[in-house]
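Notes taken during the Thursday session

The instructor put the following on the board and asked us to keep it in front of us for the whole hour. The protein is XRE family transcriptional regulator. We were told not to look anything up and to reason only from what is written here. First, the residues (415 in total):
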Amino acid sequence: MADVGLTQQGLADLVNAELRACGQRDTVGDRTVRHWLSGKTHWPQPPQRAGLEAVFGCSVTDLGFHPPRRAPVPAVATEDDSVLRRSFLFAVTGTAAGTVAPRSTAIASSRIGMSDVRRLQRQFAEIVADDHRRGGRTSTEYHSLALAEEAIELQQVATATPTVRSALYGTAAAFVSSAMWAAIDSRRFDAAESYRDRAACLASMSGDMGIQFRIWSHAGSLFRLMGRPADAIAANDVARGLPITRRDPLFASLGHARHAAILGMTGDNQAVERALGLAQDALGRTDRETQRPLWLTAFYDQAELDSLSVAAFLACGRYDQAEAHAHQSLARRRTHLRRSNAITNARLARAQLGQGEVDAAVGTAVALLDGEGGRHPRVARALDRFTVTLNSTAPGSTAARTWDDHRHAARKGTA
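Then, after some discussion, the predicted structure tokens were revealed:
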């Protein structure tokens, strides 16, 4: 899908077109595609398999599907069933009006509890861990959406206490916010904006201030990467204004640090220094024994504050300070945060180049290009910008030729 530029709905439309050409009814929606991508559906129905093979020009096993060892092929879903399934997420998030038909009395009489919530939260932990290893992957995005829909659908088929319902809404919001971050990381900004609205609605219904902070803080980062500082400041101010930032200094610190990165785009050096000072002060007041959400403790610490400082100082053109914070961040970074390490190294190369340290900058960039991190969308874009700056700063230099050689080799897969 990524290779040919297809969205979930785009693939659904193409497969449905193949089905209609064979005299079949449309049975594929974006939810169906999410189940294919997440692995929830291991072996599509026969007409859908034929449609997929026609669209991609290869067998479904080449696409990663495998037939069950001992299981009958499920009956083809009806169009009404497909519509009802798609209605769940839209009805709950308010993105489309409508009601869902009631399930059978036997199903509706079942009960869900915190054990169901904990099961989903374990899957959320896996999503977070995978994102920190690689980041920016469409598979993470679609898997998160499928799990969010599962959390929502649980509430349609079973009874639950208000506490459990709130926890399920919060978990669904967490999954959608992870899809949002994956889309931001891969620079699919339109998709990220649509996920923001859905996640914010779910988070409001949950009453979970922590996940509301995550969503609005992500929105601030989204607008910063889109080059919209006014919107970024407004979104981040929503996050910084939530009561949880007054109760927990770690939330406050992250809010201030991301605010500094945004303010760097405005060139206001004093505001950047003030925000970073507030972030450092709040981090210093943090009680490490306090229980906090996994998504926060998995990545935010002094190393991440230093990395956001790099972003802020780079935007202000203060390259010496950016380089100093980059080295501090890399020295402190936890080893599992490979994606964050790659991004910080890309920023380091830019800071070195900004100071005229051409050989050092190329050395940093080459090491990044030759590693796994060079394939990350944000890193790849940073290296493209690095190339433009290098060729304007030191055209024809030995360092520039070395860099071009490595880039060409990497594109051929021989680096």
